[in-house]
Amino acid sequence: MSGRDMAKPLLGHQTIEGDASITPAAGRTIGVLGSGDFARSLAIRLVCSGFKVVVGSRNPRRKAGLFPSAAEVTLQAEAVKKTDIIFVAVFREHYSTLCDLADVLVGKILVDVSNNTEINHRKESNAEYLASLFPACTVVKGFNVVSAWTLQSGARDGNKQVLICSNNQEAKRTVAEIAQVMGFTPVDMGCMSSASEIENIPLRLLPAWKIPIFLALGLFICFFTYNLIRQVIHPYIREQKNKLYKIPIEVVNTTLPCVAYVMLSLVYLPGVLAACSQLYYGTKYRRFPDWLDQWLQHRKQIGLLSFFCAALHAVYSFCLPMRRSHRYQLIETAVKQAVEKKMNIWVEEEVWRMEIYISVGIIALGLLSLLAITSLPSIANSLNWREFSFIQSTLGFIALVISTLHTLTYGWSRAFDENQYKFYLPPTYTLTLLVPCTVILAKVIFNLPCIQQRLQRIRRGWEKGRYVKFVLPSATGEYTSGETSSNV
Hints:
single chain, 3-stranded mixed β-sheet, elongated, alpha/beta, 488 residues, 52% helix, 11 strands, 6-stranded parallel β-sheet
């Protein structure tokens, strides 16, 4: 795999990929102890990368058919003798079965690829436990964050990072060399004490999504309760009408756009707060509060959840005419018009309102789709910084403005109709306008020349109240006094 196809490491640790001292390792013999799914996928990937593979199994005759024909499947003791680098692809519970091989394993590199079943299940990591069983061997933790599917399909279709740690630098370099030849990006995580952290990574369930998901659920519950009161409880108390049938579709469909709209504004609100902080303190070097820093880091997830809610809203809206209740209401309206002998029910204002409302909503959903697609790593990596910033920042703000127009068109003049206030509660869309309109107003203010220039100077390193004195050399090459100095 070419170097341009490799993704940049996501972790802030040292990558071994760019080390010039690492030389190609294809052609050397690699051992694999184990005959499970991961061991089979690992053997396939190693063979495809040009390595000679020898697999050690307790039942080589029965397992030989599961591995590629280029891989040699033999007894564990025989496999260990033929190589100095061995991938231990067995569960921690079975490490003790390898103790009979202790004599032939002396001086060899053991690569532990195992994972735990629970986070911090044991005080000692699997790699450290393996090292304690075989003190004469060099143990390297690695390849545990790579799935069997990624190994079979290649790094192009899965996670490209291989996290590696060991107390032996030379062993780490050797394993990193193998990972590179296989098409992965090795990342040096340090010494063996990092093994527990590496083993916990595959067990974490969407760590970066917890806060955004809870935020979306909180907004959904709040808006759902608010709409339930207005659309179901109010008619029941005031008019004794049973509107419970509205809950599964109509109430949910009224709630989803509220959540999507507010979540979209929350993507750009932390940027506004960060700009206010920089303008107030006159520097970009002052650290943001932890809550704002966390908010800025979760903007991608918040934006994707906004798109998810907007897409659901589009699907629910498409299904509204399919409801049986909607058909009954159409027939009831038609009968009333026939009884009242109304021949022309065309309302020009309502027709234009709905046409504009639907058209603007489609445009907003299209822009949100573009933002969501460019958030994918495979797409984002193909864009330069200016392109990515234009789509996520400029087009994102345009999407927020168009979503605001979509909301205002939906409300039209109903915000001034007293019949729309149920239990003195305003229509839901009026509440959703608060945060987005604040963000839009702040963005407009920041684009004023006087504010924009000051903000750009701060982001280029200028600091309020601090001056740097530059003394220019004279024509003779000697430095002059402060007359030719400049303050920045």
